Amino acid sequence: MAITPPWEVKRQVVEKAIDETDPAYGCPPKERNLRQSLDYGLLNFDKPSGPTSHDVTAIVRRLIGASKAGHSGTLEGFQLRYEVNIPSFLLRRKEPGVILA
Amino acid sequence: MTGVLPIALNEATKALQVLLGGGKEYVCVMQLHQSLPEESIRKVLEEFQGEIYQRPPLRSSVKRTLRKRIIYYNKLLEVKDRYVLFKIGCEAGTYIRKICYDIGQILGSGAHMKELRRTRVGPFTEDKGLSNLEVLADACDALKGGDEGPLMSLIHPIEEAFELQPKITIRDSAVDAICHGADLAVPGVLSLDSSIKPGDLVGIFTLKGEVVALGRALMSTEQILEAEKGLAAKTERVIMKFGTYPRSWKT
């Protein structure tokens, strides 16, 4: 029995009413500046082997200087933490990331 | 264990719920404990499709009770000696390590998971602007040098996380009420996906294509189209900051 994966489901849009949007408010996703992009943004990250998903997320958060970061779904690591191919400067640095000006 | 790991920043962490529950795809190397003919391996792999029962492995982060999970497909790619390479598309919360073990039990030889790479999380795939530590570190250095281009090119808008979800587009005048936690009422709806059923997780969008909130549908598409009042969706998680759009309700 084959079940269609969610990424192969075709979608269609139907209209109920028509209205206009006021360009004075909000901002289309493509026109966001860096600050806004970081606030409402995701990275499609390639998790390296070794560190846990949690570790990788923490490194990314520190690098970018975001106040929050979270990942979606654990890919298990094998808690050898500080030995595996992460440049050590990424793990140790304490100075705030690039964005926090 | 490598592969696609979407990482959300700041406000975007609120949208993670959608990806956590989204389907996943993996490529896996399984090691058999004795050599077996390719045909019998293929047959057992194909049995692991559709609805399966699974008890999470000993070392896992959830309660170890029997759970039902859907496997969308399970394809044998290559067999070499005792190594079996296969591609599997599955529902969130399926343990591939356990699938390998179970396959080994059915084959009679025993088996374990050797390597695993995730190739998809919901709408995010390997070929969709994948970044890694090196690229990100370089992009951050470029930014320090005043060039924000490289970092900008790595960041995906939060809206992409909702790509596979049914959507409802709403009026500007309804946006701020939802940002304050109100549920979505029918008069605010402008357009919607044709296949919404009550209980579906839906993305609530503005006409500019920004995501406002994650909602749970209370009516089907047909009901929303016919109704003139009532609640169309319950707001589960507000994503847009309030005050982005003007407040237009009276108290």
Explain briefly what this protein structure is.
Chain A has 101 residues and is α+β, with helices and mostly antiparallel strands. Chain A contains 3 helices and 3 strands. Chain B folds into 2 domains: 11-125, Pseudouridine synthase; 165-238, PUA domain (Archaeosine Trna-guanine Transglycosylase, Chain: A, domain 4, Roll), CATH 2.30.130.10.
Descriptive notes:
The complex is a heterodimer of chains A (101) and B (251). Chain A is an alpha+beta fold and 101 residues long. Chain A has one domain (29-101). Chain A is 23% helix and 13% strand. Chain A has helices at residues 34-39, 53-64, 88-92, and strands at 13-15, 41-47, 69-71. Chain A is flat and about 50 Å long. In chain A, 27% of the residues are buried. Mean pLDDT of chain A is 78; it is low at 79-84. Chain B folds into two domains: 11-125, Pseudouridine synthase (2-Layer Sandwich), CATH 3.30.2350; 165-238, Archaeosine Trna-guanine Transglycosylase, Chain: A, domain 4. In chain B, 24% of the residues lie in helices and 37% in strands. In chain B, strands 1, 2, 3, 4, 5, 6 and 7 form a seven-stranded mixed sheet that branches. In chain B, strands 11-15-14-13-10-12 form a six-stranded mixed sheet. Classes of the chains: A alpha+beta (101), B alpha+beta (251). The interface between A and B is large, with 68 and 85 residues. Strand 2 of chain A pairs parallel with strand 8 (130-131) of chain B.
- Give the DSSP E fraction of chain A (strand runs of 2 or more residues): 5-15%
Quote the distance from N terminus to C terminus of chain A: 55 Å
Question: pLDDT average of chain B, as an integer?
Answer: 92
Helical percentage of chain A: 10-25%
The major sheet of chain A is characterized as: none
How many strand elements of chain B?
Answer: 15
